[in-house]
Amino acid sequence: MTAWIRGKKILLRPMTEKDTENIVRWRNEAFVRENFIYQKPFTAEGHKHWAETMVNTGRAVQFIICTQEEKPVGSVYLRDIDRTHNKAEYGIFIGEEEALSKGYGSETAELMIRYAFEELQLHKLYLRVLAGNERAKKSYEHAGFVQEGYFRDDVLLPGGYQDVIFMGILNEIKSE
Is residue 175 situated within a structural domain? Predict the structure, then answer.
């Protein structure tokens, strides 16, 4: 099992089955859900299926973002880990509203990028973000992600079609 990752403001600990209730609650919060491409109601059964088919098989790694006092405030994950091309998709959400704008997301990104490149030996991380999510785009750019593509009317969400931005970051230290 992966060890805890310690930062200055936060701790990342491996997700367990006990985190299901928090993850379901967080993902169903309007301020979280409206910024995700997948906006359908999140269920415990769906999360357990994710854990069984993605996390337990090594196709994903997921951590719980905790304060230094070990209070869970969100989650971060690498999904669709591709060992052929050494890449994965990055995803994050802060689920506790009082934890927003405290730098937790920025520090989480730094820690996860280091984990992906140093521990998992990945070459690239990528992500998809709704074009209107300025807060997330700025955070990703601060972490070193750059825009690689802009897809107009890419997803149909409540309210109509939305544009999606693809961003990526390369492991510049390791060359193959």
Answer: no
